[in-house]
Specification:
This protein is an alpha/beta fold. The protein has one domain: P-loop containing nucleotide triphosphate hydrolases (Rossmann fold). Helix content is 52%, strand content 13%. Helix 2 crosses helix 4 and helix 3 packs across helix 4.
Length: 182
Amino acid sequence: MNTRAPVRECAPNTQALFLVGFMGAGKSSVGLILGQRLGWAFEDLDERIQQREGRSIEQIFEESGEPYFRRSEHEALREVVAELGNVPRVVALGGGAFAQPENIGLLKKAAVPTVFLDGPVDELFQRCQEQGRPRPLRNDLELFRTLYEARRQHYMTASLRVDTSGKDVDTVASEVAEALGL
């Protein structure tokens, strides 16, 4: 576990935190457990997008393309940020959300902790292989690795980085809570 910034000071007043990272990092699984432990609501941004659109992420990409999806994702994130303060929450972002400069800027302006759940690319790929839901890059390790490397520079700007390598979701959730002083 490596902290990127002195996030502990803001944690006692924190009413939200955002989990970022690549597919397979455990953002949704860790977020759900972390929300339960803290007594906070948990939200997966992809689920909000799917509800707004009335279709799956895969359908949005296939039918409307990635630029459309990224606009919809940004609007959904803006909604979540506008709702901050109403109910404490843990929010899991999709793998590409924190690689978009406008989303990074929005979260930095909101002054909420962002937590990068990181792990070795081979382990992330294996986790995706084990999950039952469709993932566009799940069958090509080299494409998976290339996209991970392109996004990692953005993820590294998060408030906190937690290494998930070889850890279960309970351990990762505990490390996040401890690092933030929650």
